[in-house]
Amino acid sequence: MSPISHGFHGRRTDEAERNRVPPGQYVTHDFPVLSAGPTPHTPLESWTFQIRGEVDQPKSWTWEEFTALPTDHVTVDIHCVTKWTKLDTVWRGVSLDTLLDGVDTSAEYVLAFSDGGYTTNLPLAEVRAGKAWVAYEFGDEPLEPEHGGPARLLVPHLYFWKSAKWVRGIELRAQDEPGFWEMYGYNNYGDPWKEQRYAGD
Amino acid sequence: MARVVDVVTETARAKSLLLDPPDWPGHLAGQHVDVRLTADDGYQAQRSYSIASAPEDDHLQLTIEKIDDGEVSPYLSDELHPGDELELRGPIGGYFVWREALGGPVLLIAGGSGVVPLRAILRHHRAAKSDVPVRLVYSARTQADLLYRDELESFDTVITLTREQWSGHTGRVGRDLLDEVAWPLADHPLVYVCGPTGFVEGVADALVAIGHAPNRIRTERFGPS
Question: Do A33 and B205 make contact, defined as CB atoms within 8 angstroms?
Fold first, then answer.
């Protein structure tokens, strides 16, 4: 139990929003930016998205091919481990189900990889069944570079560091391997509703 | 729970809390902590604050810039007094840190209160008696906004002001200033940039444009929240 901080009143989230805000989070209307390094600017002509690793036939799409794939238009709440939650964010992207369609694999994990060297790991099951996208529009506009454009992973049911910015593909893996923040003490799984912020939570 | 040992006024908008966390495992210069406040009805709010002190310092120091309409910073600035307790978790973050083994030369670039974790790095560098070259470039609005001013004068510090004319540098940290004060590219400097999002984006882009390797630039951005 936490002791009382005498004189602290806080700013309550309104009733309608409360059950949408995970423990320890607060609602922001901005879109804060958190990145470990400079923002990469990859030209679309040299951009590809790849599925590689434990797979018979690796797959790769150019930007033109990728943006011709069927998309979903989704409205989701997102939760950053630095405590902010943003409600009703609107994205357009390609479902991982679409990308993984026809991919024959025994892998149980994925490692998403990005321009700039960022990686993050997830169980394969967490990016299937309508739970994850590669998004390239935010609020009906092209996704800005500082927010991960041209395209980022969108896995809204996990803390947002799992939604890798500047994503360039996923590696299917038989064994789990920690990604960038997971190696620096952040939780391997990252469920905001269980407040799995750091290793050991 | 950490006991508040002292509260120090840094500027009109910033105060430092000197804390004694029991069983503190130690930290690396550049890391942060999570602070959790609990209201009498159980409502809780958490925020992250960079650690301002070096691992070698006697007390754990946080420097809090008060955001007038903020939820947590007004409480930390105005309501806490020596002897009070504060719930802390940490240290957190393992990338935006400097230790001797990472080498250098080190260039630290701060915008506003982004100077806090970089001051921890400077203090650690001195306490460790490192001979790795280290320089701070610190952008603030006015002289009155400068944190740790007297202390920073004892380090290799370049200050630029964006909202006040004075005898030193003025204007934003861009290519011109970086060309003048950044370590030579040939030395492969290790660069740490911390500040508000727009500041960090601008400085990091300028560094890359000058030719610094992106993987030698570590950033920490403060959201506008």
Answer: no
Domains and CATH numbers, chain B: 2-92 (2.40.30.10), 100-222 (3.40.50.80)
Work out the end-to-end distance of chain A between its first and last CA atoms, rounded to an integer number of angstroms: 16
Mutate to test the interface with A, among B1, B36, B38, B109 (most CBs of A within 10 A): B38
Indicate if the pLDDT at residue B225 is higher than 70. Answer: no
Whether B95 sits inside 8 A of A24 (CB atoms) is no
Q: Give the gap in angstroms from C-alpha A32 to the nearest C-alpha of chain B.
A: 4
Q: Is residue A63 in a domain?
A: yes
Residues on chain B touching A23 (C-beta within 8 angstroms): 44
Q: Which domain holds residue A171?
A: 23-30+45-194
CATH number at residue A60: 3.90.420.10
Higher pLDDT residue, B69 or A95? A95
Closest residue on chain B to A118 (Cα): B215
ipTM: 0.90
Task: Report the number of distinct structural domains present in chain A.
Answer: 1
3 state DSSP class of B22? coil
Q: B181 to chain A nearest CA, in Å? A: 20
Using an 8 Å Cβ cutoff, are A107 and A174 in contact? yes
The model's pTM is 0.94
Q: Report pLDDT digits (tens) over A104-160.
A: 999 999 999 999 999 999 999 999 999 999 999 999 999 999 999 999 999 999 999
Which tens digits make up the pLDDT trace of A159-195?
999 999 999 999 999 999 999 999 999 999 999 999 9
Is residue A17 situated within a structural domain? no
In a domain, A134, yes or no: yes
CB A13 within 8 A of CB A26: yes
Residue A190 lies in a domain: yes
